[in-house]
């Protein structure tokens, strides 16, 4: 008999979810983690970054208080206090992901690196463990690009950024994606000089209409944006670092954050010994997240590369994957992964939220039946009252009004993402939102107004007006 029914590598969001479900169903579960319980999300990603952003938001609001007639002195940044807030957020959430909690569930937690030695066996902490089923949830790590000189200078990634004992004087950010932009704005608002160097356009995956208000906000916060800038080399500059650009420009700073993307942690797992097909993108699986080459093995989270869809490095995708695996692996029921309604949010200020595909992505598939409707947040009463009415809601539907994608930009628009994810996932039409009764005044009304605009041309058409003209004569 195998030692365990389910062996899980990685105690991040995906691994912990699968472990909790499996143990709750009475299975014998082993959970292997070589680092911190909670993985990147708790220790180096979602939690500390949002805690830092909260501190930065407080500083920004203090500076902008005069717009309400409230005069405050310029905020003084206590970097030790900021760090304490970030550490406190991690500490408050950590018990949910702790060894003690999962041991209490009946999970055997092994705090050591695990590697496959056979199709049904692992080795960790000098012991051999056999299993019926295994789930690889080892996550991803920051990509370090092969730029000449980069390996010779000290640089930061998301795993080391939050441990800085002192506030950076001039933070250079290599990469204009979500992590780079969030951390650039946070540090600028906390009193650092910040320069973002991006080889293409910042927030390149997002709808350009949504990026425009973010670009303006970053520049207003003092962030210097160098878009379309290729880094040719990196070298030391006194006690700091200098980036040498391909156009001959030289940018010097005190610290360098590398945020150009993430890669699956496939090295060191002994995947060849278990005949587990993989690539630098991650573990090759089908849409049920089962390995295409070893039917005992599933993959979840950042390390999963399902049926050509590619990896998705989001904590909420980890939860989605755990549900798929529970259905397919534990209950032996049909399960099929879909990212059609997947939301993602860049937690800058203003935020960018994308639910489902963008307009450009839909047009790239050859669709010609798209209807685009927009509503500017400058027409939203709640945001006007709060002095934050920048951004828009943009909806993309098919010719019959079924919502296919939503692109949002504005203060806190991530809070609207769930509404649109539900609509897309349930294949709902814009009429459902246009006819909904929403509380006034809220930012969500912008979504309702955008949905209503889809039907306005038909409602105000000449035939409808003629019909109403005839109906007015009825008693």
UniProtKB/TrEMBL annotation:
**Which PROSITE patterns did the record assign?**
PYRIDINE_REDOX_1 (PS00076)
Q: Which UniProt keywords apply?
A: Disulfide bond, FAD, Flavoprotein, Membrane, NADP, Oxidoreductase, Redox-active center, Transmembrane, Transmembrane helix
Please indicate which superkingdom the organism of origin belongs to. Bacteria
Q: Residue ranges of the FAD/NAD(P)-binding domain?
A: 4-308
| Domain Pyridine nucleotide-disulphide oxidoreductase dimerisation: from-to ranges | 343-450
Keyword Disulfide bond set for record: yes
For this protein, the parts annotated as crossing the membrane are: 6-27
InterPro entries attached to this UniProt entry: FAD/NAD-bd_sf, FAD/NAD-binding_dom, FAD/NAD-linked_Rdtase_dimer_sf, Pyr_nuc-diS_OxRdtase, Pyr_nucl-diS_OxRdtase_dimer, Pyr_OxRdtase_I_AS
* Cofactors (names): FAD
PANTHER family assigned: MERCURIC REDUCTASE
Q: Belongs to which family?
A: Belongs to the class-I pyridine nucleotide-disulfide oxidoreductase family.
Stated name of the protein: FAD-dependent oxidoreductase
- Which organism does this record belong to? Roseomonas nitratireducens
């Amino acid at each position: 008999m195998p030692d365990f029914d389910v062996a899980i590598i990685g105690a991040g969001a995906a691994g912990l979810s699968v472990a909790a479900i499996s143990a709750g169903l009475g299975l014998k579960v082993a959970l292997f983690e070589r680092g911190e319980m909670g993985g990147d999300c708790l220790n180096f990603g979602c939690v500390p970054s949002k805690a830092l952003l909260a501190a930065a938001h407080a500083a920004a609001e203090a500076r902008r208080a005069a717009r309400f007639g409230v005069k405050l002195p310029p905020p003084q940044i206590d970097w030790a206090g900021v760090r304490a807030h970030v550490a406190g957020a991690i500490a408050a959430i950590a018990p949910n992901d702790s060894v003690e909690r999962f041991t209490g569930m009946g999970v055997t937690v092994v705090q050591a690196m695990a590697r496959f030695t056979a199709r049904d066996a692992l080795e960790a902490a000098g012991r051999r463990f056999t299993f019926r089923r295994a789930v690889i949830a080892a996550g991803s790590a920051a990509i370090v690009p092969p730029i000449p000189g980069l390996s010779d200078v000290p640089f930061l990634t998301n795993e080391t950024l939050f441990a800085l004992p002192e506030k950076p004087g001039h933070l250079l950010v290599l990469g204009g994606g979500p992590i780079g932009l969030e951390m650039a704005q946070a540090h600028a608002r906390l009193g650092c000089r910040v320069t973002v160097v991006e080889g293409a356009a910042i927030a390149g995956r997002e709808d350009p209409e949504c990026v425009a208000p973010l670009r303006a906000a970053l520049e207003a916060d003092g962030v210097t944006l160098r878009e379309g800038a290729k880094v040719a080399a990196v070298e030391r500059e006194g006690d700091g670092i200098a980036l040498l650009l391909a156009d001959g420009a030289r940018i010097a700073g005190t610290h360098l954050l590398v945020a150009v993307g993430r890669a699956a942690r496939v090295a060191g797992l002994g995947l060849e010994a278990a005949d587990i097909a993989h690539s630098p993108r991650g573990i090759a699986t089908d849409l049920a997240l089962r390995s295409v080459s070893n039917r005992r093995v599933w993959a979840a989270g950042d390390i999963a590369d399902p049926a050509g869809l590619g990896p998705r490095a989001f904590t909420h995708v980890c939860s989605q994957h755990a549900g798929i695996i529970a259905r397919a692996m534990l209950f032996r029921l049909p399960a099929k992964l879909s990212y059609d309604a997947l939301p993602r949010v860049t937690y800058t200020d203003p935020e960018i939220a994308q639910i489902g595909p963008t307009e450009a992505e839909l047009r790239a598939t050859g669709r010609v039946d798209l209807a685009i409707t927009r509503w500017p947040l400058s027409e939203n009463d709640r945001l006007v009252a709060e002095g934050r009415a920048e951004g828009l809601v943009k909806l993309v539907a098919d010719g019959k009004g079924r919502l296919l994608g939503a692109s949002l930009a504005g203060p806190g628009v991530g809070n609207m993402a769930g509404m649109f994810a539900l609509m897309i996932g349930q294949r709902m039409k814009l009429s459902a939102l246009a006819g909904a009764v929403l509380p006034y005044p809220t930012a969500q009304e912008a979504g309702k107004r955008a949905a209503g605009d889809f039907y306005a041309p038909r409602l105000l058409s000449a035939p409808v007006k003629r019909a109403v003209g005839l109906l007015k004569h009825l008693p």
